[in-house]
Amino acid sequence: MQQVARQAMIDRDLLPNFSPEVFNELNLIQKPCDLGQAPVCDLRHLLWVSIDNADSKDLDQLTVAEALPDETVKILVAVADVDTLVKKNSAIDGHARQNTTSVYTPAGLFPMLPEKLSNDLSSLNYLEDRLAVVIEMIAYENGTLKGANIFRAVVRNHARLSYHPVALWLERKASIPDSVAAVDGLAENLHLQDRVAQELRKYRHECGALNLELFESCPVFDEDELRVLEVEKTNRAKEMIQDFMIAANTVVARFLEQKGYPSFRRVVRAPRRWDRIVDLVSDYGFQLPQRPDSRALNHFLIRQKATDPLRFPDLSLSIIKLMGPGEYVVESPGEKNPGHFGLAIGDYTHSTAPNRRFADLMTQRTLKAALSGSSMPYGTETLWKMASHCTRKENDANKVERLVSKAAAALLLESKIGEEFDAIVTGAAQKGTWVRILHLPAEGRLVEGFEGVDVGQRLSVQLIRTDVNRGFIDFKKVIKK
Q1: Could you give the CA distance from residue 478 to residue 462 in angstroms, rounded to a whole number?
Q2: 453 and 475 in contact (C-beta within 8 Å)?
């Protein structure tokens, strides 16, 4: 699998290895950011925590909540100050600029930054003092944000938590995690964060943000042997962090606009295949407008999730495929971009994962320039070139991750050639038709019987061949007699 992943990276002009020049620079960095480099607030006393995947080591953000006397809640998101260690136009910066993202595959991680940085010196690690950019937001009970502030600070991570146990506890399905119980006041703070996150999410959905639910297939290895594909669903803790990151990214976008700085925007345009979404939804007895309308679509999704929660992830996948991918664009002061259709937000950037995404690192540099009143670190022409490059390389990284996941699935399916499966169509275009089988979370190409089928359609398929090295899984449509 490692060789499959590395070759997939090379084929898409992604760098699987760091150059000698990167390691030479890395050897000169022996400690985290100098906490006395700039006038910053000291917020180490706050109950900052990280919540991430259990195996994540590149911790980009911390969160904390504070109840205010007027019954509003202050939510603070601390983002790792990566820019202070990763200098613009350095060899380390050049590697990150080429790949633009960390690539996560079942065969291993290809980090955007050397792990000495992303997992240690620029990571918001447990009980370590770190420089951060803090986004402060005042949330009202109805889920709206009425005030925001951005500044630099010193922070300390008081608990390194993972999604699954925190979610089970918040959902009252398990006892309090030891790492939460060990910190005085943390349980109450996390309940407060959870409450505010749910209010933010409810308000977004009222505004038309799409209520979607997906699952990921995660290959599980026993040493070097692939054992099974496990299904990983979203949960309450993941949603909480997602809600705060969405809010923070919105605040950053609007802050940069107010300061008169051009910057990246993350957009998802109105669906080009809205007509197919209308047809798909009509199969469920629901009528959508002929023009893209996120509120109407979300009203249907909420109803359908309550009606058929078991199949809702498959419906969500169909809607996402028909919406099309996101992309980066540049917004200069006074201009307006297409916005993010899925989130129903006009102003949205990527700023909360600078260890993992180069767009976020560029945004952080712009944000720090705005905070200090310095000149723009990138010209508008450079921003546009990088927006296109980040979009392209993100798509390349996604293809690598999918290919390696398919290679793992192909390995597990080798012994099942000739068997039939229930499936759902996940893609239909000139370049090919794709289906995902339902009882083993694996996607492959429909190479026979694809005429006339479209995204969201259910059908029976037969597995006819696999190719592990190329990540190929081929099916043909089964005609029921």
Answers
A1: 6
A2: no
Output the pLDDT for position 108.
86
Q: Say how many C-beta atoms besides its own lie within 10 A of residue 238's C-beta.
A: 18
The pLDDT of residue 226: 62
Quick one: 141 and 163 in the same domain? yes
- CATH code of 457's domain: 2.40.50.140
Angle at CA of residue 375, ends 89 and 136, nearest 5°: 95
Tokens found for residue 112: 């955007």
Q: Tell me: do 258 and 389 sit in the same domain.
A: yes
Low-confidence ranges of the chain (pLDDT < 70): 36-38, 217-231, 481
For the chain, report the end-to-end CA distance as a whole number of angstroms: 40
Is 37 inside any structural domain? yes
Q: Could you tell me the two tokens for 14? A: 């992604």
Q: With a threshold of 0.85, does the pTM exceed it?
A: yes
Beta bridge partners of 269: none
The span from the CA of 191 to the CA of 172, in Å, is 11
The whole-angstrom separation of Cα 112 and Cα 358 is 8
Q: What angle do CA 17, 22, 26 make, to 5 degrees?
A: 120
Range of the domain at 278: 274-323
3-state secondary structure the chain: CHHHHHHHHHHCCCCCCCCHHHHHHHHCCCCCCCCCCCCCEECCCCCCEEEECCCCCCCCEEEEEEECCCCCEEEEEEEECCCCCCCCCCHHHHHHHHHCECEEECCEEECCCCHHHHHHHCCCCECCEEEEEEEEEEECCCCCEEEEEEEEEEEEECCEEEHHHHHHHHCCCCCCCHHHHCCCCHHHHHHHHHHHHHHHHHHHHHCCCCCCCCEEEEEEEECCEEEEEEEEECCHHHHHHHHHHHHHHHHHHHHHHHCCCCEEEEEECCCCCHHHHHHHHHCCCCCCCCCCCHHHHHHHHHHHHHHCCCCHHHHHHHHHHHHCCCEEEEECCCCCCCCECCCCECCCCCCCCCCCEHHHHHHHHHHHHHHHCCCCCCCHHHHHHHHHHHHHHHHHHHHHHHHHHHHHHHHHHHHHCCCEEEEEEEEEECCEEEEEECCCCEEEEEEECCCCCCCCCEEEEEEEEEECCCCEEEEEECCCC
- Residue 171 shares a structural domain with residue 260: yes
pLDDT at 267: 96
Q: How many domains does the chain contain in total?
A: 3
* Residue in the block written with tokens 């409810």: 202
d(CA 362, CA 351): 8
Query: What type of residue is 117?
Result: L
Task: Return the exposure string of 15-36: e unless at least 16 CB atoms fall within 10 Å of the residue's CB, then b.
Answer: bbebeeebeebbeebeebbeee
3: which 2 tokens? Answer: 């060789």
